[in-house]
Amino acid sequence: MHIKRRDFVKSTGLALGLASTSSLDFLNVLLDQSSFKMTPLRNNVGIFEERGGTIAWMISDNGIVVVDTQFPDQAKHLIDEIKKKSTRQIDLLVNTHHHGDHSGGNIAFKGLVKTHVAHKNAVKHMKSRAESNNSLDRSLLPATDFKDNASYKVDGETISLNYFGAAHTDGDAIIHFENANIAHMGDLLFNRRSPFIDKNAGASIANWQVVLESAHKHYDNDTLFVYGHAGQGYKIQGGKDDLKAFENYLGKVLEFVKKGVDAGKTREELAKATSIPGAEEWKGSQQRPVNAAWIEIVDGK
Q1: Which of 188, 126, 119 is nearest to 160 (CA)?
Q2: 31 has pLDDT over 60
Q3: Are the beta carbons of 50 and 28 closer than 8 angstroms?
Q4: Would you say residue 226 has pLDDT above 70?
Q5: Looking at domain 37-250, which of 3.60.15.10, 3.60.21.10, 3.40.190.10, 3.10.20.30 is its CATH number?
Q6: Does the pLDDT of residue 30 top 60, yes or no?
Q7: Taking Cα atoms as reference points, which of 239, 240, 168, 172 lies closest to residue 206?
Q8: pLDDT by residue (tens digit) across 270-289?
Q9: Cβ atoms of residues 192 and 231 within 8 Å
Q10: From-to residues of CATH 3.60.15.10 in the chain
Q11: Collapsing DSSP states into helix, strand and coil, what is residue 10?
């Protein structure tokens, strides 16, 4: 019996486990492009995984919220799933930050959303990127922004947008569904996966540690955190221990590069690292974080 590739992939357990990987391995790319997963978590709030940063959603009889949008094709898959459950307009769309794997699918929501919001710096970066790519007409920028904190109520749920300062970029917000007690970290947490640190968009490794510490104090021990990305074999959601572990990793990256600089090693030598002493769970190429740490330590930026 002939089975279509998409039906086969979606029927396998492997597809669910590897949906968010960015590896260039052929099998992973195939699964990445051919499957998606809707996972309920708490109180009508859940996550969508396919290609790009994890999306959070709330779908209830009287309210719909979406946090991040991946890419246009993936956003359409989510929209189709939402339409199976509700015919109402989407009440709130939030972008955790400006990167394309979290906001590239915004355009698929054109005309479908009542309120679209992101941190003011994230909106600035989205607009700048679209202008430089001559793609403003193919982009959907948030119509509303905020500076420090914002709060919205949708069907009895309070959605708080919290900004703790520059980290992965200078415009990352944590989106907290207060009643469900689920906090979407966006790319403020890469769970056991080497992070992208966008120095061109105001990132600060040192302050990222402060941001994680602030989040650790702000949210309680029952908060379920959703992460933008996770390494293969690691969960896309978890608890405060993951925040502490990632904070430790970032500190160890700075320590590793500082010791290397003091020992006379070059940037290229340090960037060959495949793990960081004291945070070995973050396996694989450390080129991106090492380069960012070098800029921060050596160039003072």
Answers
A1: 119
A2: no
A3: no
A4: yes
A5: 3.60.15.10
A6: no
A7: 168
A8: 999 999 999 999 999 999 99
A9: yes
A10: 37-250
A11: helix
